[in-house]
Design a protein that fits this description.
Elements (H helix, E strand, L loop, with lengths): L3 E5 L3 H4 L1 E8 L2 H17 L4 E6 L9 E3 L2 E15 L11 E5 L5 H11 L11 H8 L5 E6 L2 E9 L4 E7 L8 H15 L4 E7 L3 H9 L3 E14 L5 H5 L3
Parallel strand pairs: 2-3, 9-10
Antiparallel strand pairs: 1-2, 3-11, 4-5, 5-10, 5-11, 6-7, 7-8, 8-9
Length: 242
């Protein structure tokens, strides 16, 4: 089996966070590579490093691997629900406005504000904005009293709610539920009979909202661990010959 390790460095300049994903890697090789990969990300400026394995033959667990200690922090879940007539009906406070090139910078600012503290969220820049503009109808603002208070991002090929977020000043008033319902309505209008999304268990407000709105977990997509270099091998791993 060919070793496949994905290193995500995009967030290092913005938030000092690096990510490491073992896609395909035998357990022994993973344990050998992990300390080297952590050191490499640190040398690139990462202050925090999170690690996951999507290889079912080499799952991660809390504890020490060589000079690296792993602490489980959250799981990424896929959730879904039907878009039938029983779905929640939204109020009339929010309306959607499609993303345009003219509004692009404003959308970027609001997107990055909304997702600045969300686990595993990416910071968007000009390149990501160009990709959004190439997918007409998939992204936009939500307005309250004609003022932008949030954003949405949909995958119109798969029926995924890729992202919904509110400006900090718009939170705490029940608008998150209405924004979710609006996104569901937009997909239903496109003919989708069901929708799905991803959420981190480290984002309890969003996770609980999705549960209360009828979303059910269909699978754990990945388990994430915070990696910290200890500088010395754990005694138990030394005894095991690692």
């Amino acid at each position: 089996m060919e070793t496949q390790i994905q290193r995500v460095t995009h967030e290092i300049p913005y938030r000092g966070i690096g990510y490491l994903i073992f896609r395909h890697c035998a357990a022994a090789e993973r344990d050998r590579q992990l300390p080297r990969e952590i050191q490499s990300l640190e040398e690139q400026g990462a202050k925090e490093i999170y690690v996951a394995s999507t290889d079912p033959e080499a799952p991660l667990a809390e504890g020490a691997i060589g000079t690296v200690r792993l602490t489980h922090v959250h799981d990424m879940l896929e959730m879904e629900r039907d878009l039938d007539g029983n779905r929640p009906r939204r109020g009339g406070r929010l309306r959607a406005v499609l993303l345009t090139e003219v509004l692009g910078e404003q959308w970027l600012t609001l997107y990055n504000e909304a997702f600045s503290t969300v686990p595993n969220a990416a910071t968007y820049g000009r390149e990501e904005l160009a990709e959004m503009l190439d997918k007409p109808g998939s992204c936009g603002f939500v307005l309250e009293d004609d003022m932008p208070v949030g954003i949405y991002e949909l995958d119109l090929q798969t029926g995924e709610i890729e992202g919904i977020g509110l400006a900090e000043t718009a939170r705490g008033r029940g608008l998150g539920r209405e924004l979710l319902q609006l996104a569901m309505d937009l997909l239903a209008e496109r003919g989708y009979k069901s929708c799905w999304l991803q959420v981190s268990t480290g984002n309890p407000a969003a996770y609980q909202l999705y549960q209360k709105t009828g979303f059910c977990t269909r699978r754990v997509r990945s388990r994430w661990f915070k990696a910290e270099a200890t500088g010395q091998k754990d005694r138990n791993t030394e005894e095991d010959g690692i």
